[in-house]
């Protein structure tokens, strides 16, 4: 029996079978066979969800062979859903195109990233799923559907963030933009100044974010703006030094030391904050957005009304100061635009994002649980792919179109072919 684990190694399952279909027809046939034998089906991409969203003891489907571009027409691109974001960005660039926004990790599958409302940062930009114009989906009985926003906008706006509960997405049509470069400015600034000027900070760049190590008074700030200036990317040596040796090799070793000797953790995090280098460069957008992540961690992230961020963040800082165990990884703060996708964490409101992390093997349950309680005071919506403890009863109150979404689920998967323990908890 095969054991499958996610990237963070905090979730695993032993499926009856692992299938790698070559096209939509094979996906449909797999679902028909599984439904006939009453076996659940789940899809796994790169395994970058920290939850058990893709875990099953039934049939686990990998869409790794469905990674081709089907069609490019103007500002619309149709691709198979298993394509990885890094490959999609490379192929789009070859045609003078780009995604309008990306997160800081680009190894996820497109289907997994959109299904969980994965996002980058930018007050005027929504999550990745907001670019979806059409969806091809295999439902719980193996029937293939194609939903287009022009013909059935409600269905597309529901299925765009589906968390794997409505069917297997096999093909997506996306709205893309002309390729662009970003002027990246990375600075170290007083944390109190950034937080007190939060509203201005979110408007200070096309893409603005910051992070800080718990207990430190410095913010490591990133501001990225579109530019027509000539490119001046980092040298290969500088990229390897900053992104691999410092952010991954050295930081990973330091975290391992902090796990072994927790009393050293404050000195370790202080040393890394103090040694962070400022950068100023211009490069292709996807190269600026994403960085290699070799140090494993667990993460929880909540979206709350954007104006609530300073108050909520102060409460998180107070919590961290009271913990009896150290936190080795930083707290990250971002923002995003409101959207109209039924199960999107950004539905109907501009969002501020607060993400907390911990190194594997270090205590995190009390830390994360208490942060979650804080976020609940602001009707916080958890990132679908990151750790949280919410249930359907709570989430129904936080999503105005929840019942409409569940009605579509009943129509597309009435026998719950795609259920698992995670969906039972969050969808009911």
UniProtKB/TrEMBL annotation:
Keywords: FAD, Flavoprotein, Oxidoreductase. One of its GO terms (molecular function) is L-gulono-1,4-lactone dehydrogenase activity. Residues 11-179 form the FAD-binding PCMH-type domain. Pfam families: ALO (PF04030), FAD_binding_4 (PF01565). SUPFAM superfamilies: FAD-binding/transporter-associated domain-like, FAD-linked oxidases, C-terminal domain. One of its GO terms (cellular component) is membrane. InterPro entries: ALO_C, FAD-bd_PCMH, FAD-bd_PCMH-like_sf, FAD-bd_PCMH_sub1, FAD-bd_PCMH_sub2, FAD-linked_Oxase-like_C, FAD_lactone_oxidase-like, Oxid_FAD_bind_N. PANTHER family: D-ARABINONO-1,4-LACTONE OXIDASE, L-GULONOLACTONE OXIDASE. This is L-gulonolactone oxidase.
């Amino acid at each position: 029996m095969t054991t499958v684990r996610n990237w963070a190694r905090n979730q695993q399952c032993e499926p009856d079978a692992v299938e790698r279909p070559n096209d939509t027809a094979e996906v449909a046939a797999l679902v028909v066979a599984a439904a006939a034998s009453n076996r659940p089906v789940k899809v796994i991409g790169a395994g970058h969800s920290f939850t058990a969203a893709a875990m099953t003891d039934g049939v686990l489907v990998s869409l790794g062979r469905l990674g081709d571009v089907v069609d490019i027409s103007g500002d619309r691109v149709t691709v198979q859903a298993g394509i990885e974001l890094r490959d999609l960005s490379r192929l789009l660039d070859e045609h003078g195109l780009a995604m309008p926004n990306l997160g800081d990790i680009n190894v996820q599958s497109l289907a997994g990233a959109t299904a969980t409302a994965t996002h980058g940062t930018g007050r005027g930009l929504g999550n990745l799923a907001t670019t979806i114009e059409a969806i091809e989906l295999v439902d719980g009985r193996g029937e293939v559907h194609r939903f287009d926003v022009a013909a059935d906008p409600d269905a597309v706006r529901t299925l765009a963030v589906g968390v794997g509960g409505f069917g297997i997405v096999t093909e997506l049509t996306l709205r893309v933009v002309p390729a662009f470069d970003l002027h990246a400015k990375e600075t170290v600034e007083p944390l109190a100044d950034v937080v007190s000027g939060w509203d201005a900070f979110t408007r200070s760049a096309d893409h603005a974010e910051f992070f800080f190590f718990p207990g430190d008074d410095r913010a490591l700030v990133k501001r990225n703006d579109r530019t027509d200036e000539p490119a001046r990317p980092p040298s290969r040596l500088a990229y390897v030094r900053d992104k691999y040796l410092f952010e991954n090799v050295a930081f990973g070793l330091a975290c391992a030391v902090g796990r072994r000797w927790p009393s050293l953790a404050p000195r370790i995090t202080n040393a890394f904050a103090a040694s962070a280098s400022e950068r100023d460069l211009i490069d292709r957008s996807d190269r600026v957005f994403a960085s290699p992540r070799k140090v494993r961690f667990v993460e929880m992230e909540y979206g709350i009304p954007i104006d609530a961020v300073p108050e909520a963040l102060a409460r998180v800082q107070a919590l961290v100061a009271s913990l009896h165990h150290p936190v080795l990884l930083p707290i990250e703060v971002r923002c995003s635009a409101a959207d109209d996708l039924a199960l999107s964490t950004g539905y109907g409101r501009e969002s501020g994002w607060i993400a907390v992390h911990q190194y594997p093997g270090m205590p995190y349950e009390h830390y994360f649980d208490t942060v979650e309680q804080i976020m609940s005071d602001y009707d916080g919506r958890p990132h679908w792919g990151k750790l949280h403890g919410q249930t359907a009863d709570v989430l129904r109150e936080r999503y105005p179109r929840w019942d409409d979404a569940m009605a579509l689920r009943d129509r597309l998967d009435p026998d719950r072919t795609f259920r698992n323990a995670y969906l039972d908890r969050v969808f009911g």
